[in-house]
């Protein structure tokens, strides 16, 4: 006897959990399938949680969610070989509850989130991998097949929340295989340090946390960024670069991370810590122009499997949650109206996304991936130029300041030419407008 | 026949680390698994059920966090799961644990007589191999340890024949049931749960037994109070000062490499060298 549900959700990351939670809360018979030993067991450790998206699902999440620190300071660093220039934003406002951003350990957070989903009434199968989609003669998706005996499970609709690789969607021909040009490979490590050490090194107290976003020489000429987050008694540090660049340069991401950790501005922050939990993961960074078809007969893509990542602001989990919630709301609406999950009806999912920050933000930065790929000066020239400029201006050596300014200006003009500088300003404006 | 399998949820030792500064065991984020040896106990019980029919109850003493281990046992085919759980059971050593489990099995026996009890040969977090024998003793059951194969079970005659690994060979033992069997690793291939099995596990209600439900008679014998064992200190092995010494290796000349190695070893063991030289001169 095979099982039949209203909805099957594949994956128990932020997207799948948000979808299953919303459905279960509405009393819909939902099955969630996760290949990991438990939700979170497969997920890269250490991340930033944006409260807003979760609050819309679980308003009182702060009472029980495993949160590490709330972020009160954000640093942006542009690095050269042995220096950095940048800005810090620290605010007492960010220190007052309700807090807006938190650091979390994904393995623990995802497990907590999944507990809420199960309490809401969804059934969860772990250690079970969805291998394929089941279709009827017309091609409508009517269920999934898992990697266990008697593995056919039926549903009126399937939400694919199976992450960046989304083998299920790819194999079913719903989207293309992830391409090296539209994906970043990120490596990340959690480094354990006593809480007092973390507090002292980042000027924090209590549950306060800090974040550093980095770009420049650390990516060795590739399109990519680095990051460092403070957890309760550990630091998450990582770097991600476009897969196509990594392939071209034959660089192992581990090596990239090791070199970044050795940077004179970074090394003292993590000194003496014990690295644990090394992980590598793909991030879909193709942006708006790389989005696949998002829905069809009986199916929808949400979260990373749909490519919903805002690489500029390092937002992913919030887009995942919001898209998961919207897919669920679309189905709830259709079930109430007793309409089937046909492609025509599921177009409402796309309409919801278009009206939200998810699509608006992706559209805003749609030209950025291409711009950065083609205009390498943003990675190769400007970080060094900016650092040199600061160095020239701040070094007291008998040269008068007007001469120093001239020297800086000449350095920029030599590397980029006057027209180049204007062009660069235009490119950057167009790519982020 | 009614078979009981006792299992324990343990931290996955592959993921455990000792904190370099405080020397405490870092359990944070360490996944919990069914004690690997217990999986062979479950498998042996399920094979008997496949063969003879009957019922398999899986049981564990532990906190409510141990529920996933019991669910997993159900997904494999166990019929029912009992979590023997009570605040006063905390801090138990093997003596107190075997007392609680024996009491619970005795209580269960009244619902449906128990013919066999299975456990793994030991746990990976304690390595004592004492709980199984402790239960057998308290329940006055025949005890068969380190069993590698169940040869034959005759429920009507209440007889069981097993192969047991002993030093230097394999013993074939026959005894009367009820009996308690501790299973050896590798005795059987562990099955992979089917989809219906996964659904059964996800929906199963795990019975929780507190001290009363489990039929505990003397609460002085459970938990920390009932545990005479004291762990006075935990420490990691000290790092050794000796460094590995590389031996030059020429793939074209493995003989010289072997000679090289032997030479180095004998240099460090003058007594052995002397003896060898003595023997060589004796035989010449
Ligand atoms: C290094 C790194 C740092 C990041 N930092 C941040 C950050 O700070 N803040 C932020 O918001 N975002 C961050 N992101 C992005 C964020 O992690 C993702 O956008 C988010 O996890 C997407 O959620 P998801 O549910 O779509 O996918 P996932 O979290 O990848 O979840 C997919 C789930 O599906 C399961 N699954 C996959 N295939 C199958 C199958 N066939 N059958 C059953 N189950 C399956 C997987 O096991 C997994 O649990 C980061 C990403 C990386 C790689």
Characterize the largest beta sheet of chain B: strand count, sense, and whether it forms a barrel: 9 strands, mixed
- According to CATH, the fold-level topology of the largest domain in chain B is Rossmann fold
The chain-level structural class of chain A is alpha/beta
The number of helical elements of chain A comes to 17
CATH class of the largest domain in chain A: Alpha Beta
Q: What is the CATH architecture descriptor of the largest domain in chain B?
A: 3-Layer(aba) Sandwich
- Tell me the strand order in the biggest sheet of chain B: 11-10-9-12-8-1-6-7-13
Q: Oligomerization state of this entry?
A: heterodimer
Class of secondary structure makeup of chain B: alpha/beta
CATH superfamily of the largest domain in chain B: HUPs
Overall structural domain count of chain B: 2
CATH class of the largest domain in chain B: Alpha Beta
Shape of chain A: globular
* H and E string of chain B: EEEEEHEHEHEHEEEEHEHH
Q: How much helical structure, as a percent, in the residues of chain B?
A: 25-40%
